[in-house]
Amino acid sequence: MPRVYIKTYGCQMNERDSEAVAAQLVAKGYEMTSTETNADIILLNTCSVRDMAEQKAINKMQNLAGQTRKKRDVVLGFMGCMAQSRGQKLIDQLPDVDLVLGTQKFHRAAEYLDELLKGKRDKIVDTAEEAGSEATIKEHLLLGNRDRKSITGFVSIMQGCNQYCTFCIVPYTRGEERSRTIDDIVAECRELVATGVKEITLLGQIVTSYGKREIKSVDGKSAFVQLLEAVHEIEGLHRIRFTSPHPKGYGDDLVEAYGRLPKLCPSAHIPLQSGSDRILKLMHRGYTRERFLNIIKKLRTIQPGIGITTDIIVGFPGETEEDFEQTLSLCREVEFDNAYLFKYSQRRDTPAAAMPDQIADDVKEARHARILELVNSIAAKRYDANIGQQVQILVEGPSRKNAARTMGRTRCNKIVLFDGSTRHHGELMDVKITRTGSFTLYGDPAILE
Ligand code: 5AD
Questions:
Q1: Could you tell me the distance, in angstroms and rounded to a whole number, from the CA of residue 256 to the centre of ligand 1?
Q2: Mean pLDDT by 10 residues, the chain (449 residues)
Q3: Distance 234 CA to ligand 1 centre (A)
Q4: What is the pTM of this model?
Q5: Residue 145's pLDDT is what?
Q6: Potential cystine with 208: which of 56, 101, 245, 353 (Cβ 3.0-4.6 Å)?
Q7: What DSSP assignment string belongs to 86-106?
């Protein structure tokens, strides 16, 4: 049977899409392999959000075409966001590529690979829109009970984005916002829980916009909060997370949900992008600094220990030293548990790419270094504050970096490492935090059987 290797770039949605493609291929008799060296088919699931991510995938494919193809006849394919936005151009640039599969076509992977392998078609490019494609990412690779994948599960609840932030390529690669039904999502979650999954993360480009057009608010509760309530009902499920929300989606109904729904973990990744109102407006973000601060205040009132992380872009066109200082001061005020910091990258056909006053690379670099230092020092302080505390973790499996250690996550989404064994996998247990490392807590089991 043909062996398939999939390499994934970018966000958790991409990870989830790759998993669904793998599950689809396994069901059709293909075998997944974890190295490219013995693969018959190599698929790169790509990201377009910054130029660097695109270049990485293109370089990788160049290498594969140059080296691997000379030795063996492998099928080479691009999937996902860059496949969607560049289409046929990828084959023009890299003629060894056989397949270009867009973001609404993941479910056709097996069929197309079959045609290519049988020689029915020479090249396939499919980046068309497809009604109903939002409901096609539902298959999971169910690995053995002791694997981390059967302890935490990711469920795609929607596709696309209608926010059109001026820096962002996603509306053009993922299309219009389309949501699955609550019943469909709950059924998928139930299936996961039946296989031993204890924690589910609901995924979407902007999950707080879930069902905006399709599902009416009930008693002041948005469609997304209704979905959280429905998933919360599932017996045997212990933890619910979601990513990513948009600040404008934090209405009181969602804030209150953190107080009302015990399975909803007190952690949130809320993309800030900038602390300057002027830049937020140019970015088309739809909120102010004050509104953002207010959301954080409300969340911390209802869940004082809530873990809060964010995304920040430095060097957006026109960003002055003063604008940047506003972002720094917001970071000092909020004290994020972590922030993902990005240098603005011009994306083709986005409004910001054509804005005046593009920022020079050395300025972006310097601002990035300054904010990184600030964010890291605040995060270290917040991690250190956990020392001596007893926290509940869900044990996911061996640590990725050091398999001798066992890894779990707190409800606030912090990684905890401890000396455990396979018998702890999938357990909810209490540990005492003894020390910290970089974005890591080290724990000692407080209650062992
Ligand atoms: N340049 C830099 N960072 C970007 N992001 C999105 N588009 C760009 C861009 N053009 C960042 C945002 C987003 C995260 C996923 O990537 O911070 O939240």
A1: 29
A2: 96 97 96 94 98 98 86 91 98 97 98 97 97 95 58 97 98 97 98 95 98 96 98 98 98 98 98 98 98 98 98 98 98 98 97 98 98 98 97 94 93 97 92 96 77
A3: 34
A4: 0.96
A5: 42
A6: 245
A7: HTHHHHHH-TT--EEE-TT-G
- For residue 242, the tally of other CB atoms under 10 A from its CB is 25
Task: Please say whether the beta carbons of 208 and 254 come within 8 A.
Answer: yes
Rounded CA separation 6/23 (Å): 12
| Burial label, 177 (beta-carbon count in 10 A; 0-12, 13-18, 19+) | buried
Q: How many residues in the chain?
A: 449
pLDDT of 447 reads 57
Q: Which atom of ligand 1 is found nearest the CA of 167?
A: 10
Q: Which residue is listed with tokens 């604008």?
A: 323
Ligand 1 atom closest to Cα of residue 343: 2
Pair of tokens at residue 133: 């494609």
How many angstroms is it from 291 CA to the middle of ligand 1? Answer: 21
The residue written with tokens 């905006």 in the block is 212
CA distances from 307 to 303, 339, 369 (A): 9, 11, 24
Q: Decide: 10 in ligand 1 pocket, CB within 6 A.
A: no
Q: Long-range contact list for 31-36, CB < 8 A, 24+ apart?
A: 31/1, 31/2, 31/3, 31/4, 32/3, 32/4, 32/5, 32/6, 32/141, 33/3, 33/4, 33/5, 34/5, 35/5, 36/5, 36/7, 36/64, 36/68
Rounded to the nearest whole angstrom, what is the distance from the C-alpha of residue 327 to the centroid of ligand 1?
15
Tell whether ligand 1 has an atom less than 6 A from the beta carbon of residue 347. Answer: yes
Ligand 1 atom 17: residue of nearest CA? 311
Q: Which atom of ligand 1 is nearest to the CA of 352?
A: 10
Contact by Cβ (8 Å): 261, 240: yes
Angle ∠(165,311,304) on CA atoms, nearest 5: 120
Angle, vertex CA 139, rays to CA 134 and CA 141, nearest 5: 140
Helices (H), 345-388: 361-384
- What three-state secondary structure class fits 146? coil
For position 146, what pLDDT does the model report?
Answer: 42
Q: If you take atom 13 of ligand 1, which residue's CA is the nearest one? A: 311
pLDDT of residue 449: 42
